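Hi all, posting the design record for the shared folder.

TITLE: backbone redesign
STEP: 1 of 1
STRUCTURE INPUT:
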């Protein structure tokens, strides 16, 4: 398969995958949001309808309470007798009936009636006579059992209405005075549903506190109401006659009625139609765009390769005049420049091959001559040490031993990690050399807690800091300097401080000391030494132990400098060695082996 075809198929596959995956994810998220929003809106609608039912029934209940406790009603039911003063305008009977008319609402109520214990009955309705209810005594008994509480009885099967009854009691003696009854029209409850926009194909069912239907059609859902509607509010999916529905219900805390909304899935799917159409159109456009982009990208990427292949074929046949366009600014342009330059130089290179081979042989010979075995240097220093000892030059012996130790540890790659105790031995060798060099121009004080002697640290961690202290105190100070190396454990942390009584440094220099060598702030340090050794130690400690560890620098002009090493106490030995070996492998790349301190 040619590169053009590979590029075309690769680009097409990538763009198609991106289009399909992004489109699928977008559709999934958007459809989920729309479905959730639809269910939430339905829940709010059902809750609103349920609250409207409660408000309606509270209004009816309040009217019954008003009548039951009204003084006129109480007086009439206590003192009124059948046949007395019923036609007088100010008679108790007429007053009671006027109150009933005031409370009566022909839109909401079918009738209103009071059955007095005094043998009188009081009736109010748009009809001319009281209805003959076959279950009147049953309704009275229900009211008496509730002892004054209002009871709503589902009497749809008998009278076609809801019957609301209440026992009227004497507010002083609490003796029963009669029963108050009113019939609630179902049409009033239906109007409450019609005032709320539910869904064109959605249904609402209203059940009473005994799960009997008040409004709506009987179905499998209403037959299993005792098992399905056990919470105060909830939503779930349910199949009715094989069709899936989303069922949302709310139970009234006031009446115990259950307002149930039934929304078919096809109604919910209607809201997804614009999204489905948009997704399909976007997918088709994405495929077409993918084809176009794949062809264009493949053409522009393969065309310069084709030109290069043609030029190489000519060049392979000995045509050294072939050239490629160099106007391109991308990698192909750079390749063409190299190709053209290579053709111009190829003849010279052919002539220089023989000379290059001779030169390589000579360089190899010189390189072999320049190689010196480190063991030879150690043996030579041991020989000098032996000769000095033979002559009784103990100072020279000590100096040669110190130099030999430092040379060995600098060259050796066998150990990447030392204990603090071993590191201090090499620090003391270094200080011996420097004290000999500077003629005791400084004093050193060691204050190391024994419990951190076996603490592991990268080799050459303390020595660069001691060297830095000498450079910035002994070399630049005219007075005798004092160096202090302190170390102790502070909880889970080991702190080692190298301080001097030198000239100190400015705040700008102190902040830039631990910055990356190539940064602008680092380049502005006005000192003979760049402090790269300090930076290298800081970076090694951070890599080895983590970001919370490393060096901290404190210094003020004229007051000396203190550099503190912060490392964890007794980190896992295996982990320290593993990180140190990794650090040793990458150290030349990161520039950790800097001779400057």
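Okay, here is what came back for every position:
SEQUENCE:
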């Amino acid at each position: 398969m040619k590169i053009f075809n590979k590029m075309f198929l690769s680009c097409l596959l990538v763009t198609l995958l991106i289009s399909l995956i992004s489109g699928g994810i977008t559709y999934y998220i958007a459809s989920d949001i729309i479905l959730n929003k639809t269910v939430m809106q339905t829940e709010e609608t059902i809750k609103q309808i349920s609250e409207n039912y409660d408000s309606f029934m509270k209004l009816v209940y309040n009217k019954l309470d008003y009548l039951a406790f009204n003084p006129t009603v109480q007086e009439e039911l206590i003192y009124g007798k059948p046949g007395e003063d019923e036609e007088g305008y100010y008679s108790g009977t007429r007053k009671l009936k006027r109150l009933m008319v005031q409370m009566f609402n022909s839109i909401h109520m079918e009738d209103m009636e009071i059955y007095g214990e005094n043998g009188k009955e009081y009736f109010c309705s748009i009809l001319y006579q009281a209805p003959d209810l076959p279950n009147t005594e049953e309704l009275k008994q229900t009211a008496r059992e509730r002892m004054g509480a209002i009871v709503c009885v589902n009497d749809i099967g008998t009278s076609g209405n809801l019957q609301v009854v209440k026992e009227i009691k004497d507010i002083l003696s609490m003796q029963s005075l009669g029963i108050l009854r009113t019939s609630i029209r179902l049409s009033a409850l239906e109007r409450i549903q019609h005032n709320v926009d539910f869904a064109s194909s959605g249904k609402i069912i209203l059940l009473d506190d005994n799960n009997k239907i008040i409004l709506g059609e009987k179905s499998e859902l209403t037959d299993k109401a005792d098992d399905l509607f056990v919470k105060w509010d909830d939503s779930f999916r349910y199949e009715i006659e094989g069709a899936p529905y989303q069922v949302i219900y709310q139970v009234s805390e006031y009446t115990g009625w259950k307002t149930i909304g039934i929304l078919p899935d096809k109604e919910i799917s209607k809201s997804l139609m614009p999204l489905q159409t948009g997704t399909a159109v976007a997918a088709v456009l994405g495929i077409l765009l993918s084809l176009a982009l794949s062809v264009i990208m493949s053409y522009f990427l393969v065309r310069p390769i084709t030109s290069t292949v043609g030029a190489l074929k000519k060049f392979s046949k000995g045509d050294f005049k072939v050239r490629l366009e160099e106007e391109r600014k991308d990698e192909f342009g750079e390749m063409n420049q190299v190709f053209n330059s290579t053709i111009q130089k190829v003849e010279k290179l052919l002539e220089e091959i023989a000379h290059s081979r001779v030169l390589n042989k000579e360089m190899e010979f010189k390189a072999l001559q320049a190689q010196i075995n480190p063991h030879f240097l150690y043996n030579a220093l041991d020989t000098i040490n032996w000769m000095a000892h033979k002559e009784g030059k103990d100072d020279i012996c000590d100096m040669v031993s110190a130099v030999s130790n430092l040379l060995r540890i600098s060259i050796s790659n066998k150990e990447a990690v030392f204990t603090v105790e071993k590191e201090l031995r090499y620090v003391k060798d270094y200080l011996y050399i420097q004290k000999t060099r500077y003629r005791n121009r400084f004093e050193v004080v060691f204050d190391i807690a024994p419990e951190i002697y076996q603490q592991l640290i990268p080799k050459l961690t303390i020595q660069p800091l001691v060297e830095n202290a000498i450079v910035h105190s002994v070399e630049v100070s005219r007075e005798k300097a004092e160096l202090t190396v302190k170390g102790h454990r502070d909880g889970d942390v080991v702190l080692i401080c190298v301080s001097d009584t030198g000239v100190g440094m400015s705040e700008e220099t102190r902040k830039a000391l631990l910055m990356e060598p190539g940064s602008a702030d680092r380049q502005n340090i006005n000192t003979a030494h760049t402090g790269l050794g300090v930076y290298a130690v800081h970076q090694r400690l951070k890599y080895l132990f983590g970001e919370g560890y490393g060096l901290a620098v404190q210094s003020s002009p004229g007051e000396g400098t203190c550099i503190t090493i912060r490392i964890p106490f007794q980190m896992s030995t295996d982990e320290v060695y593993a990180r140190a070996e990794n650090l040793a492998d990458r150290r030349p790349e990161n520039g950790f082996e800097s001779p400057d301190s």
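COMMENT: Residues 3-69 form the longest helix (67 residues).
Let me know if anyone wants the other runs.
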